[in-house]
Design brief:
mainly beta, 4-stranded antiparallel β-sheet, 1 helix
Length: 324
């Protein structure tokens, strides 16, 4: 098959370069996700204040608006988190990361990873559900608990949701933790891509299987599955990495993968076709991760993260040609 070709346009938004930015948006712009409006494109992302005295982070959800005719031009930055952290003891008390949103009538629905801290491992994650009635500026939880959480064969870390709707059915692709292990004294995790479906966006049926095959062996970690329908085929872009030494060793760090499907359940992986990789130098020279692929005015674009999983913002790439 012919390889796709993505033309990198550079960094779109890096909070650390903004003067007088609020403390809660000190750094990181992780997991970009697009909602297209008439005159602008809103990109939701997750950011962090400085860590606390115990070197612990929290994560907030925010957004920037981009000029629809020039996606490198930021025309508005959120002044407050669009969703508050959860109450004490809830599943999302310590983080909202990532967020995936979809327009439904006069509302915007958001599915997000809610983070809590643990004792034996660093964190656990479940997927929450919120709605906006003010055009996506702010969101309110539908309830204090998660809408998709741990189960018999998905015992921990239900995360990285991406919501899409095809043929009047909601599809929520996400990741589920497979195992925790210790490497050089540090707790690490393996997770795989899964899928759930819903008729109403609230009640979900899990497919209960890993839908993307491994390239790096059973200890490959996969994340951020994003699906777009083009030319009578479903195309998924996601990211993957080695289980260990992925923070310091660029060859083990995140890369973007690709798969295609006719039915959204059975996927054929073909990373040779993906057409985007790390740069020789600069902000995305160590990793490329968390792709968000979308169509805008006849063109296909991808927002994605670079080094240190978005510590230096998110960037833009444009597809040359189409997805086939």
């Amino acid at each position: 098959m012919k390889m796709y070709k993505w033309i990198k346009k550079g960094v779109v938004f890096d909070p650390s370069t903004i003067e007088n930015r609020p403390l809660w948006m000190n750094q990181f712009a992780q997991a970009p996700n697009v909602i297209v409006f008439e005159k602008f494109v809103r990109v939701y992302f997750s950011c962090r204040p400085l860590p606390d005295k115990n070197e612990q982070y929290v994560s907030y959800s925010s957004f920037v608006d981009l000029n629809r005719e020039n996606l490198l031009e930021v025309i508005n930055i959120a002044t407050n988190p669009c969703l508050t952290l959860g109450n004490i003891g809830t599943f999302d008390e310590f983080g909202i990361y990532p967020v995936s949103a979809i327009r439904e009538g006069n509302e915007i629905l958001a599915y997000y990873g809610g983070w809590t801290r643990c004792e034996s491992v660093p964190f656990n994650v479940a997927i929450g559900f919120a709605k906006s009635t003010d055009g996506g500026h702010t969101f309110e939880r539908v309830g204090e608990g998660p809408i998709l959480s741990y189960s018999l064969d998905e015992p921990f870390v239900i995360a990285s949701p991406k919501i899409r709707k095809f043929h009047n059915i909601y599809y929520l692709s996400y990741i589920a933790g497979r195992k925790w292990f210790v490497d050089n004294g540090k707790k690490e995790i393996i997770y795989k891509i899964r899928m759930a479906t819903s008729q109403d966006g609230t009640n979900w049926r899990k497919i209960n299987k890993d839908i993307i095959s491994d390239k790096l062996g059973e200890d490959e970690a996969q994340a951020c599955p994003d699906i777009i329908f083009r030319n009578n085929k479903y195309h998924m872009f996601f990211c993957y990495r080695q289980a260990v030494d992925f923070r310091r060793n660029k060859t083990n760090s995140y890369r973007i993968g690709y798969a295609y499907s006719d039915d959204l359940i059975n996927w054929t992986r073909d990373d040779d076709k993906v057409g985007i990789d790390v740069s020789n130098n600069g902000w995305d020279s160590e990793m490329v991760a968390y792709p968000n692929v979308f169509e805008l005015d006849g063109k296909i674009y991808m927002f994605y993260l670079g080094n240190e999983v978005g510590k230096f913002g998110f960037g833009l790439a444009e597809l040359q040609g189409d997805l086939t």
